[in-house]
From TrEMBL:
Molecular function terms, GO-annotated: methyltransferase activity
Protein name as annotated: SAM-dependent methyltransferase
GO biological process, one term: methylation
Leader peptide range in chain numbering: none
Domain of life: Bacteria
Keyword Membrane: no
InterPro entries on file: MnmM_MeTrfase (IPR010719), SAM-dependent_MTases_sf (IPR029063)
Keywords: Methyltransferase, Transferase
Amino acid sequence: MKLHRILPFARQLFSETVNAGETVVDATTGNGNDTLFLADLVGENGHVLAFDIQQAALDSTAERLGNLSERVSLILDSHANVEKYVSGQIGCAVFNLGYLPHSEDLSIVTKADSTIKAIHTMLGLLKKGGIIAVAVYDGHEGGGEERDALLAYVKNLHQADVHVIRYEMINQRNNPPFLIAMEKMKDFITVKLVE
């Protein structure tokens, strides 16, 4: 066994919990790395809903997917609107907070209100034993506020409903990212969103 960085650790969690044929969500498609991983993981009968608010991210993802593109719906919309696109259960969801890597406009970033709304909605859609993994990058303007709001939200999730871990490398410099992973413990939970 070895220590994984945060994204390989999230993928390990998904590999252990997602079944072929399930629907899963990439809430922040970015350059498509997680979308591609999930498309392979769900198999030919599964489906990935991949969200981004930037067309450039969806275009980059479409190129990366190649012959797996039929397993993916690329959605130009905020992940906060996930309920418009998902009616059934999901096997997992992944978020990478912050901005689109290598983007020309680094002012387009994820925001606490839409991130928490999306997580809240997806917890309701998530199967029992399913995982939501959120990679938190907080070194940009507004990143600290989003991080703090997210941590406040997950700390208030009832432990009987959702198990939450924080996974991080503590000896890295310059705002190292960390992972928040949530495992749904019951089929039905009554998570209340605090406004």
